[in-house]
Structures are given as structure tokens and as C-alpha cells.
Specification:
Chains A, B: InterPro entries: ATPase_NBD, HTH_MarR-typ, ROK, ROK_cs, WH-like_DNA-bd_sf, WH_DNA-bd_sf. The structure is a homodimer of 399-residue chains. With 399 residues, chain A is of the alpha/beta class. Helices cover 42% and strands 18% of the residues of chain A. The first copy, chain A, has 3 domains: 68 residues, Arc Repressor Mutant, subunit A (Orthogonal Bundle); 141 residues, Nucleotidyltransferase, domain 5 (2-Layer Sandwich), CATH 3.30.420; 160 residues, Nucleotidyltransferase, domain 5 (2-Layer Sandwich). In chain A, helix 9 crosses helix 10. Chain A starts with 6 loop residues before the first helix and ends in a 5-residue tail after the last helix. The structure holds a DNA duplex (30 and 30 nucleotides).
Chain lengths: 399, 399
Amino acid sequence: METPGSQSSLHRANLERVVRAVRLAGSLTQAEIARTTGLSAATVSNIVRELKDGGTVEVTPTSAGGRRARSVSLSGDAGIVIGVDFGHTHLRVAVGNLAHQVLAEESEPLDVDASAAQGFDRAEQLVTRLIEATGVDRTKVAGVGLGVPGPIDLESGTLGSSAILPGWIGTRPAEELRGRLGVPVHVDNDANLGALGEMVWGSGRGVRDLAYIKVASGVGAGLVIEGKIYRGPGGTAGEIGHITLDESGPVCRCGNRGCLETFAAARYVLPLLQSSHGTDLTMEGVVRLARDGDPGCRRVIADVGRHIGSGVANLCNLLNPSRVVLGGDLAEAGELVLGPIRESVGRYAIPSAARQLSVLPGALGGRAEVLGALALALSEMGDSTLLDGTLSAATPVFT
Amino acid sequence: METPGSQSSLHRANLERVVRAVRLAGSLTQAEIARTTGLSAATVSNIVRELKDGGTVEVTPTSAGGRRARSVSLSGDAGIVIGVDFGHTHLRVAVGNLAHQVLAEESEPLDVDASAAQGFDRAEQLVTRLIEATGVDRTKVAGVGLGVPGPIDLESGTLGSSAILPGWIGTRPAEELRGRLGVPVHVDNDANLGALGEMVWGSGRGVRDLAYIKVASGVGAGLVIEGKIYRGPGGTAGEIGHITLDESGPVCRCGNRGCLETFAAARYVLPLLQSSHGTDLTMEGVVRLARDGDPGCRRVIADVGRHIGSGVANLCNLLNPSRVVLGGDLAEAGELVLGPIRESVGRYAIPSAARQLSVLPGALGGRAEVLGALALALSEMGDSTLLDGTLSAATPVFT
DNA sequence: CCGTCTATGTCCAACTAGTGAACTCTAAGC
DNA sequence: GCTTAGAGTTCACTAGTTGGACATAGACGG
């Protein structure tokens, strides 16, 4: 690591500046890079040559009809990143390149009762299969992003209490997967990754402050503050599910009463419908029935929306984000749930905080988390690992 | 403004690095600067000379007993900044220098019904008086930080609905004061400034994520996220006072029911004691009585604490700060109010979010806001205006 | 079909700024 | 009084950005 404040650090920063600009736009000519980065054309010329030699960037000799600009884009095979998302009933893996393109993606059901070891085995297999399917070289894998449905202690990397995957408590998922795949693995919880995914590819594009609310087995929020995921000093920011809505409400698994979860999470909501709609109902089922017009399901979903809206109103008063993106199974209900949320927010949030707020469904559905994991892997590479050209040499991966 | 990525921007960054290091430590020798900033001794030598010539820094030829290190400190008279705080019953002004030293400070009562014009007149007079009292040259005033007890629209700079100073709604305080004093004025609401003050000088030192809760006529919070005041895209973050605690609670001035304010703010709490303790009770009075053992006041304060604790618990679940600092009149009650807050937080916040949380009283009392205003003025100068040595020449102030 | 125009990308000399090494200086320690 | 060691300065060197000159090649008008 060079000393900060030196010229070489400036150069490095300028390299990153260029890479970021290219990534953001997909592809740019050198002149455009110069304009967007503010660097001079000469510097850009040098930097592009350096990047090209390093293999991080590709220059397609002549672009479309234009004058004769050579368009610069991130080279697809300079390195690939992998996103892994453990959900509460599924495992999902995506493979992407540095150009933010998803090369392959697949999901498979995962037994809720699976042990952690089984889960990691399955993940390893699926990753291997997808890499082979895309035909890229395994040595090109630069990093893995991993999503788990529970709180991660950032210091130790251990998974805290997660009633969703009970067998996993106390494991260190990143270590575990790192051991199997031999590449750096970065872990975060599913709500944060969902937020990241929607921010990069989905309903959160262009917004710097947003909250991604994931309603599934539990209720969690991923907070994006000034363009960055905010985890809080202890790593547990975003626990919107355990905001107290009613001090004398139902007892929650966290030990308190009347948490938002007890009004909105699948595990508390589904039982309400079991006497009338049978016992093996899932949240997806409820949503489907509601869309088909089932009044009971509609009512339940509206009530859930109202409660979520109360929680979101609190969140808006405190953080005043410009957008709230709803994810998880429930988001499929569309206006059936968004309407009541907006209504509730309008009622309980102070007007100035709610005024410019937009409440949108996630654009990525169940893919938000894997894609977020991809984005995590990309961003944790620091945008600089990929610059020094030593990528394939420095990280002896697989064999 | 130079282009980013140029060498001169690097140089500027290094200048700031040095100034920051010196400010943080109060005074350093060049060798120490080199060690803490990571710059080489030669570079530090150049930079110090440049800063000394520019007048931002002072070099005291020989320090105490040491070998023969020349200690470098921010020069006190390179420029001064002013903090102005309009409270709901007072006006407070502080004068400080670039070394973060407070040179003079004074407060005087301000009639609640005063018109905005009257208020600004008074502020101008007090500022003038204090500048004269300190004996510094008026041309040295580099900027003013201004605190107002209500939401400020960051775009337009207008003061939103404030039931605290009714005559002020729609005014543009920064413009107003700028017109009178002829210097750049930066405005923010009192809770944010209190947070800034406590962060720089008070109970928040060394913490990067904290919430400053100000309980006075209303209840507001100033959020510090990763070392920076967070205002939210709309500028209204931190409105903890209007979190809903009880959907069927008392009607709040904001139009909702059961807001935290209706359980904690002076305007709602004092009436509870008027039948037993007389009608001209103030919050300070209640606190004093409680400290003296009055059971009614103790009970009221404890109840307020419990409710604040509920709000803080929500805040912790969402943001997971490492510290909560209590400000405003109520903070004087010490453990009488902090105990119930902690208890309530422990009960309603999820354990992992509350574990490393410390709840402390503000260390600055009623001065937090003015000092925060000073800090705002300093920081809005960008810590770089003060570097280019053109300070006194560039801003023709007063006469 | 050809000359001119214009925007792109490259090259080079100039300049800015940080760094290591050598050097000077001064108080402390013996 | 001599030595020593850390502090600060000077200087030559190097890294890296920049403006301007230059080559290039499509677009446009005739």
C-alpha cells in the first residue's frame, strides 16, 4: 500500500475514476471519459492504455457510424464475480462480469432444515456448475458476494440468531465458503443486498437515499444512505421488523410485543388464514389468491400494508429517504399492498418527510438479493484489485 | 475550482490533511505531523511554510523543554467564525477562532413573540458587541453558523412550519442575517447543530454514529452518520418527535395522534403539573423540583424518559448508533431521566442493536447549539477557505 | 469525387508536487 | 566539551498531469 497523499495514490484514484465512469455508462469514448471525469484528454489516453494493457478494459476499434471514436468498455473476461444468496427456502447463484453483466443465474430449492454444511455443499456445487456453464476460466473468479437471511456480526463474521435457518447460528458463512471456493467472500444480510441490487439494477437507480423493505419470513430493511449501504457501527441497522407498533400486541420471537413483524411477517400472518384457507398456505399463495380476488387474502394483505406503512412512516420521520422499495414475496401483490402502505405513510409520517417520498415495488423480484451479492462482490473488490493487472496471478484460485 | 484529479487538487488535499491533523491535536511538531499524516518530512516542511505564509498557522519557535521541535498550531487570529442560536426563549451567540477556541459567548432572553425582524436586529447587535469585546478585527469574520428551532428547506433556505417562533415562518434566516452582517451565513436546525456541537466538543467526541435527542418545547433529533450530520435528501431527517407511539394517543400539533412529542415535549408535559404545581412552571423548574425530590415531578420525568426510550429504541433498531446524547432542558435531570430511557431502550430495542449503545447526557448543556453553529461555520468554510490565505482579502466584510 | 472541417486520439515538452538522502541545527546526556 | 539523536531544511530526482501541437478519418458542401 502506498502512502496516502503521494502522487501514485492520485494516479490510482484517477484510474478508479475512469473505471467507475466506464462502468456507470457501460461504454464511453475517451473524449467522453475526459469530459465526465474532468481529466484531460492526455491523461485519459495514458490511463486507457494502462488499463487496456492490464486487461481490465476493452477498446473496440471503431464504434457505430460516429466519427472515429474508439469506445472503451470494461472487458468482460478480465474477471468474474459470483453472487450467492441463501434464502429461507431457496439457494440462488449468479455469475457476472466486471461490466455488470449477468452471465448466468440459477436458483434451486433449499430445504429449510438443511444443515449449514449441506447448504454450503449445495452452494459450492451450484457455483461450480454455473461457472462451467458460462465457459469462463475458474481462475478468473475475483470475488464472491454472499447473502444470508439473518444478522451478521461484522467483526467476527458470525451469523447471529436466525430463526430462519436455525442450524446456521454461530457459523461463519464467509469463512466457510471461502474455504470451499478459495476466493475472497464478502457477506451481508439479505435486506442489505436486496437494497444494493435494487439500487444498482432495479427500482433504486439514480436515488442516493433509499430503504429497501423486505417482507418475507421476517421483515427487514436495507438502508442506502448517500449512495452507500449503511450497516451501523454494530452492523445491525435496518431492523425495522422489530419496531414496536403496539406495546400490548402479540408476542414476537424477539421477546417483545407488538413488533412490526408480528403484523407483517409471513410466520405471523399465514396462521390467520389457515382456518379458512388450509394449512399449507405460503405467502406467494396468499398473494396469488388476493390477485385473483379472494377477499380474505386481500384484507390480510391490506392490513399488512397498513402496518408496514406505520413502520415506514417512522423510518421516514427519522431518515427522510427519497424512495422506499418493497421487496420479498409480498411485493408481488403490487397495488394491493402498496396502496395501504402509501396511505399509512401519508397518515403517520410528517408531511414534509413524506412529500417527496415514492414507494415502489422492487423491479427485480426474488433476484434482488443475488444481484446485490454480485454488486457487493464488485464493490468489495474496491475497484482497485481489478486494476493492477495482477488479478489472475495474485489469487491462486481453484486449480 | 481546479479540476479534480489534478496534482493541485492533491496538494490541496494534503494541505487539508495537515490542517485537520493540527486541529485535532491542538498543536503538533512537524515531525509529528509527518507521522500522523503519512506525508514525508520534506512535504510537511513545504506545507507548513505555505500555511505559515498564508497566515493560517502559527509556529512557536521553540516549544517546551523538548529537543528543539517547533510546534505548529492553528493561528488564532487568521480568521474568526460566529455561531448564532435562536432558541425558543433565548438568543445565544459565540465567537470562535479557527483553532476551535471559543473567544466569547453570551446569551440573552428573546421574547417568544418577537418578530423575525426584531430577532435579527438583536442578533446583529449581540454579534457586534461580542466581536468588539474580543477585540478582533471585523474583517476577520469568515463565516457565520446559524441555528433555528425548526425545519429548514435546504433548497430554498426558508424556515418551515415552526410553532415555536410563529412569526418566523417563511423567512429565510440565512439571507436575512447575511444581509445584515455581510458574511456567508450557513443555517441548520437546532437539533442538527446540537449534534454537531456535542460531536466536536461534548459527549460525542470520538464517536462516528450518534443521535442527539433534544427535548425542549418539541422533540427533535440530530443524526450523525459516519461522522457527518445526516439531513436526508429533503432535509427533514431526525424528526423523532413525530414517531407514533400510540395510535389512539393525544392529538399532536402535527395533526397525528400519539406522537412522541405528545408524551415528552414541554408543551404537552407541563400542563400535567399545572393543577398541582401552578401554571407558570417551566421545564427547568420541573427538573429542579425533581432533583429536590418532588415526587410528582420525578414521576413525570420518569414517564417522559420511558416514552423517549421507546422512540430511541425505534431509532436504534433502524440506525444502530453507538451513542445517544440527550440534550435540552431535560438533560439536566440526569439519571432521573436517563435511567428510564435506558430501561425503555433495553426493553424495546432488539438486544444486538442496544448492546453497545451508550446513552449519555449532553456535556454542553444549553451551549451545544451555539457551539454546533460555530462548528457549522467552520466546516462550511470547507476547511479549505481557511487555507488559501486570501481569506481577509477575498471577503470584504463590514467596513 | 474532392477539398475542407471538425472532433478524436496521441505525443511531447513543460510544469507541479512529493520523496529520499544528505545536511544543518540544537538541546540533552555523559 | 564532546557526542548523539531527533528536528527541520535543502536539493536533486521522479511520478504524473497538462496544454498544445499533430496526425487521423469520417462528414459535409460543392
